[in-house]
Structures are given as C-alpha cells and as structure tokens.
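agent> fetching stored inputs for the nicotinamide-adenine-dinucleotide docking request
agent> found them:
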Amino acid sequence: MSTTIGFVGLGNMGTPMARRLIDAGATVRGFDVSTDARDRLAALGGTAADSAGEAARGADVVILMLPSSDVVDSVAEELLADDVLGGGCLVIDMSSSEPLRTRDLAARVTATGASFADAPVSGGVGGAESGRLTVMLGTDETDRERAHDVLSPLGRVVDCGPVGAGHAMKALNNLLSATHLWATGEAIEAGARFGLDPAVMVDVINGSSGRSGSTDNKWPNFVLTGTYDSGFGLRLMLKDMRIATTLAAQVGLPSRLGEQAVSLWDEAAHALPTDADHTRVAEWIATRPTDGETDGRED
Ligand code: NAD
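agent> prediction call returned; pasting tokens
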C-alpha cells in the first residue's frame, strides 16, 4: 500500500492497528497526547508527529481512533481550523462515536472538499493485533473502494450503509455484548453459589444455546483467568451502551432491557476504578452488595 496515513489516537487499539498498516506498506504519521504512545509508534516504524495537524497535513487518509465523539470533534476542529485537510484526503473515524454527531462532522469535513467515512471496529486488542477485526464501514459510494483498500489489512470490512451507519451498528453491537456479559456474570455466579464449577459452566454454555461472545471469549480469556485485561475500558463500554439506547429512543423504540443494562453498568462504573477493564463487571457482580446492603456510595 503506497498510502500516507495520518493516524490520531494511538491507544490500546490505535497502536496495533497502526502497526498493521505499517506492515502493509503504508507510511504512517501518528499523533497521540501521550508521549509513550508516540514513542511506541516510532519504535514500530511509524513517524511520531507533534500534533494532530502535523500528522494529517498532506496525508492521503486520516484515521481517528479516539475515545469518544467529544474528542473526535475537538481534534477535527483543530484540523478544520488549520486548513489541514487536502481536497483528496479521506478522513475515517474508526472510534466508537455517536452516529448523529458523525453525520454533522461528515458535513463539515466534506464542505472542505475532503471525504469522510466512519469505520468502527469489533474484535478487541487481540483482533487488532492479528488483523481480524470486524470493520463496520459507513460511507458514500464514491469513497467505498478506497476505504476498503486502506482498511483491509485490519480485518473484514463490512459495508453497513451511508455515513453514520458504521457507528450505529457498532453501538448496537456493544449494547448486546454488554448485556450478554452482565447476564453471563449473574448466571455463573448463581451456578457457583449452587455448587457448579464456573469453568464447567462456560464449557457447557459454549456447546449450548446460552453461548455468546462473552462465554466464547471474555470468560475463558479474561474472567476465569482472573486477569481482567481485555484492553477495553469499562467506561468506554458504558459510553457505547448509552449511544445505542439514545439511538433506540431517537428512532422511537426505547430499549427497556438496554436502559436497565445501562443502569447496572453505571452502578459498576461508580464503584470500580476509572481505568477498570470492562470485564471487571463479572467480578463486581459476584461481590457487590445485594439488596438491603449498601456499597458505601452517598450519591
Ligand atoms: P484508549 O483509551 O486505549 O486509546 C485512546 C487514545 O486516544 C489514548 O492513547 C489517548 O491518549 C488518545 N487521545 C485522547 N485524546 C486525544 C487527543 N485530543 N488527541 C490525540 N490523542 C488523544 O482507547 P482504545 O481502547 O484504544 O479505544 C479507542 C476507540 O476504539 C474508542 O472509541 C473505543 O470505544 C473503541 N474500541 C475499543 C476496543 C477495545 O477493545 N479497546 C474495541 C473496539 C472499539
């Protein structure tokens, strides 16, 4: 790939994704507010830039892999204000962002003559490292082929529809994923208290109809091992769940189960450290105060 990519956001996901693009032959200029992250990129064969503008200026493609729409918008404002984006540039927001804000941003970017796509991912840090992400692409027909070419080293690129469709798809997937993880935590803890072995339960469920990504991947790799190190933060998951329930309400189908899941995850987010991995909810479910007890919170 003879493409120059400006890559902004070199965290748990951005770093291994940038590495795969470098390995595929792209020239990657990356920026992150963290010096450590910039140093990691340089060690992988990319070029560390001193600002998002420096990473993006003159690039064929600009990839954003940032925590939220708030951060995406602030970085995009910087790029737009400094007139950094060239006419042929394709901006791809791979963060898990809010679909309606994505459409607003796309309008501002395309007004400069640049193009825009959203392409959030699923598959976690392991998928980013191995190039086995599911990439949910939202884009106009004219930019589709170019987006596929750039993103294919990262995994399976699925056309979800026009701009915003990828972000809607991603949030709805994560609402399901979070709901499965919570339900699995309750079922396994109930079984354990009855006397069942959690490892046997996971094995049986994976051959049965209760199977999900949580029992396939998260329990065996991050919960039963006691490592809780999937690399996806609890607060990022809660953000995605809220995007999905807001979307459901906006289209006139409020998600009753989803709202309940948000409130449970919110409770865990208040109780656990700000940098807790999302798989920690399984431990929280097993140890949290039950009805009538207090968790010490005053709010
Ligand atoms: P992360 O917190 O590890 O990385 C985000 C990076 O953005 C950090 O390195 C941070 O320093 C950087 N950053 C923050 N503000 C910045 C700014 N203004 N300019 C430049 N850099 C800035 O998060 P992550 O896990 O890599 O997730 C990134 C996105 O991908 C999120 O939207 C998340 O919801 C989504 N996602 C994560 C996973 C996962 O398994 N971790 C999987 C799929 C999707």
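agent> quick read of the result: The CA atoms of residues 17 and 128 lie 6 Å apart.
agent> awaiting further instructions
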